[in-house]
Amino acid sequence: MNTPIKDPQPSTLYEFYSRSVGFMVGAIMLAIAHHQGIWSFHHTELVLIALAYPFLALFAAKKTPPRLHHLTRAGLIAIDACLMGILMAYMEFAVVPCIFFGIIINTSAVILGRADVWLASLISMALGAYVGTLIFGFHVTLQAPLIIDICVASGVAIYLAVAGYFSGKQTTLLEQLHQDIKQQEQKHKHLANQVSKYISPQILESILAGKQDVKLQTQRKKLVVFFSDIKGFTALSEQIESEVLTDLLNNYLTEMTNIALKYGGTIDKYIGDSIMVFFGDPKTQGAKQDTLACVAMAIEMRKHMKVLRQKWRGQGMKNPLEIRMGINTGYCTVGNFGTESRMDYTIIGKEVNMASRLESAADSNEILLSYESYALIQDKIICREKGRISAKGFSRPVPVYQVVDFRHNLAAKSTFVEHELPGFSMYMDTNSINNYDREKIAHALELAAGKMKHHNKMQS
Q1: Mean per-residue pLDDT for 231-237?
Q2: How many other β-carbons are positioned within 10 Å of the β-carbon of residue 181?
Q3: Domain segments of the chain: what residues?
Q4: Rounded to an integer, what distance in angstroms lies between the CA atom of residue 413 and that of residue 429?
Q5: Mean pLDDT of 21-37
Q6: Alpha carbon of 50 to those of 109, 222, 312, 315: distances in Å?
Q7: What distances in angstroms separate CA 1 from CA 4, 7, 173, 186, 188, one per listed residue?
Q8: CA dist 113 to 70, 94, 428, Å?
Q9: Would 373 disulfide with which of 33, 178, 359, 369, CB 3.0-4.6 Å?
Q10: 218-231 and 322-338 strand pairing
Q11: Per residue, what are the HEC states of the chain?
């Protein structure tokens, strides 16, 4: 259950109490002055204004929309200062009362912690004093009767005590509000973490950041699509218990997903033992870098399977599990598909189908690329041309390429030889050559070398 965040509206009441004390001091002072026979003109109107104004200010604050509350507070303090300025002019600028009323205005402005409000209050007080001289005339009586000084001093002391008390209450309220917001953030973070187990983290982050609307809409983008599955998984499922199979599959999917997220892949879905990932949405580094990241992910997945096979062998798994992978780069339709009440963020298009066909055509531990993907990463990744395959849904056979490894990795191996020039290309991994093929390869190389020597003699 969510804990409701407390409404900061009590701050309006706190200001009302403080304002009431300040203007009540003014009303009492006016009543005493009238009783003493000084400043008697218009005292009734001024007393009524001093008593009624705090309630009018409270009404205005409550009717103001919350988004304008900070402007209302500053505006009311400016009005307070203006009225105090008028009262100072009415008191003929008696020194002690003016000082104390100035303390009230400065305290109110300083509590807000804003220099602009403090400066505006001083200007408003000066403006009020000027208006007061226009209404009551300009008179100066530096010394007010002692009873007036005592009344104002006592009232200001009470005002400061009340303002300090409610300022402390306001601080406590803000601290509680901060704690409530913190608790709500933690609950929302926990909820987002739970939802992220059902939605790709990149998609969830995009939604929470407001970069993506949750509505039925799609767009065309150049993406890199990846499919993988475990070869022979169906046959394996008939040989072992479902509980063992479930643990194995969950372990495999967890490890592969961690690798996909490491390289920035967006997990589209799991279909049994098959994983569908795409790169280029919602974030992209460009088609070349997205394709390179996808191939790097596939290479690490293939290497990590060696670790998993060793682990499963220790758990009694006799038959080693092998994965196969397919990668394609091209324009796809990506976005929310479904209904307004139930959506699935996914990709569709012939390029997606091509990636799936490549994965089906791959052998164990093999990563197959389309020509579009190969062309983007061939400067970083060693690939072997594997001919053409007939893919369902495609009228013509398509060329495919087998991923070997990063060029910098293979260059460090003494068993690997690679050389490429215009009209000449050679790559050889002696560890991967079968013994019965070695003599054929050696004969082919000798034949090629003989032709090169003969050609050189003819030219010379």
Answers
A1: 78
A2: 11
A3: 10-187, 220-412, 417-460
A4: 9
A5: 83
A6: 19, 71, 85, 87
A7: 9, 18, 22, 13, 12
A8: 12, 29, 75
A9: 369
A10: antiparallel
A11: CCCCCCCCCHHHHHHHHHHHHHHHHHHHHHHHHHHCCCCCCCHHHHHHHHHHHHHHHHHHHHHCCHHHHHHHHHHHHHHHHHHHHHHHHHCCCCHHHHHHHHHHHHHHHHHHCCHHHHHHHHHHHHHHHHHHHHHHCCCCCCCCCHHHHHHHHHHHHHHHHHHHHHHHHHHHHHHHHHHHHHHHHHHHHHHHHHHCCCCCHHHHHHHHCCCCCCCCCEEEEEEEEEEEEEECHHHHHCCCCHHHHHHHHHHHHHHHHHHHHHCCCEEEEEECCEEEEEECCCCCCCHHHHHHHHHHHHHHHHHHHHHHHHHHHHCCCCCCCEEEEEEEEEEEEEEEEECCCCEEEEEECHHHHHHHHHHHHCCCCCEEEEHHHHHHHCCCEEEEEEEEECCCCCCCCEEEEEEEEEHHHHHCCCCEEEEEECCEEEEEEHHHCCHHHHHHHHHHHHHHHHHHHHHHHHHC
Q: 279: phi > 0 → left, psi -120 to 50 → alpha, else beta; which?
A: beta
Q: In this model, does residue 3 exceed pLDDT 50?
A: no
Query: Quick one: angle between helices 242-262 and 287-314, nearest 10?
Result: 150
The pLDDT, as a whole number, for residue 159 is 81
Which is the CATH superfamily of the domain at 220-412? Answer: Nucleotide cyclase, GGDEF domain (3.30.70.1230)
| CA distance between the termini of the chain | 91
C-alpha 382 chain-centroid distance: 37
Cα separation of 366 and 346, whole Å? Answer: 25
For residue 207, give both structure tokens. 């939604």
Residue 7 has pLDDT above 50, yes or no: no
Angle among Cα 53, 98, 116 to the nearest 5 degrees reads: 70
39: closest CA among 145, 159, 181?
Answer: 145
The position carrying tokens 């395959």 is 389
Give the pLDDT score at 222: 96
pLDDT at 298: 96
Give the C-alpha separation, 114 to 459, whole Å: 91
Under a CB-based contact definition with an 8 Å cutoff, are residues 420 and 407 in contact? no
Q: What angle do CA 37, 42, 43 make, to 5 degrees?
A: 55
pLDDT at 2: 44
pLDDT at 175 > cutoff 50? yes
Question: What pLDDT is recorded for position 456?
Answer: 79
